[in-house]
Amino acid sequence: MGNAEVAGAERAALIETFERLGPGAPTLCVGWTTDDLLAHLLVRERDPIGSPGILVPALAGWTERRMEVAKRQGYAANLARLRAAPGPLDRLMPAIASTAEYFIHTEDARRGNGEDPRPAVAAREALLWRWLGLMGRLFVRGVPSGVQLRTEDGRIRTLKKAAATVALTGAPSELLLYLSGRRSAARVSISGAADAAAALRDADLSL
Fold first, then answer.
1. Is the pLDDT confidence value at 203 over 90?
2. Which of 79, 4, 3 is nearest to 39 (CA)?
3. Ranges of H-type helices in the chain
4. Does the pLDDT value for residue 53 go beyond 90?
5. Residues 173-198: pLDDT tens digits?
6. Are 70 and 43 in contact (CB under 8 A)?
7. Please, are residues 165 and 146 in contact by the beta-carbon 8 Å criterion?
8. Which of residues 82, 111, 140 is at a domain's end?
9. What is the domain range of residue 188?
10. What pLDDT does 113 receive?
11. Distance from CA of residue 57 to its chain's centroid?
């Protein structure tokens, strides 16, 4: 399965999850329902004015206003737009980035409603492991301790070196959820020095 196929499968899973849960369902994103999450995705991939605030805090207020505009279109209409095709901004993104985005937000909706993790897909896990290699250091840049990622099949990726190191062990998809701030929902184990583990738990992992 190629990268584009993996991204397409994750987008299909995201759409299916939105269809099944419907509007007003809780998510892992604090204060957001599925309506908000759907609007966020549409702004991200279709709104060149609103999307910069997703990554630039100074513009976040403008992004929120654009999300409110999108929400006024209604859940069904917004879902139809998402289902139709990826937006122009999304098509500019590499498949590996879209896969991570779709996976995280699918699990935001699913696990926010008490659902268990989906079965592992080897191609997806391989792609997300590569994504952690590209982006992992950004997630942990504010962590004072060393951070190491370990998969259950023995792969190791060191994101940050320090005298005291904490190791996160789990599937690449679960490691991604943890590092993207979904700590309570991620199926990972933590080992290492107690102070290093505490520093990781307390750190702001946002991009």
1. no
2. 79
3. 3-21, 34-46, 60-71, 75-84, 88-91, 95-111, 122-139, 172-179, 194-202
4. no
5. 999 999 999 999 999 999 998 888 88
6. yes
7. yes
8. 111
9. 124-202
10. 97
11. 18
Report whether pLDDT(60) > 90. no
Mark whether 45 and 85 lie in a shared domain.
Answer: yes
> Tokens standing for 156?
């190791």
- Final residue belonging to a domain, choices 111, 134, 151: 111
Q: Is the pLDDT of residue 117 over 80?
A: yes
Tell me: do 82 and 10 sit in the same domain: yes
| Angle of CA points 183, 124, 136, to nearest 5° | 45
Q: Are residues 88 and 128 in the same domain?
A: no
Q: CA separation (Å) from 79 to 11, 59, 107, 108, 118? A: 12, 25, 17, 16, 22
Give Cβ neighbours of residue 40 (< 8 Å, ≥ 6 apart). 32, 54, 67, 105
End-to-end CA distance of the chain: 29
Which residue's entry shows tokens 């290699």?
133
How many other C-beta atoms lie within 10 A of the C-beta of residue 29?
18
Structure confidence by residue, pLDDT tens digits, 61-90: 889 999 999 999 999 999 999 999 887 887
Structural domain tally of the chain? 2
Claim to verify: residue 133 and residue 174 sit in the same structural domain: yes
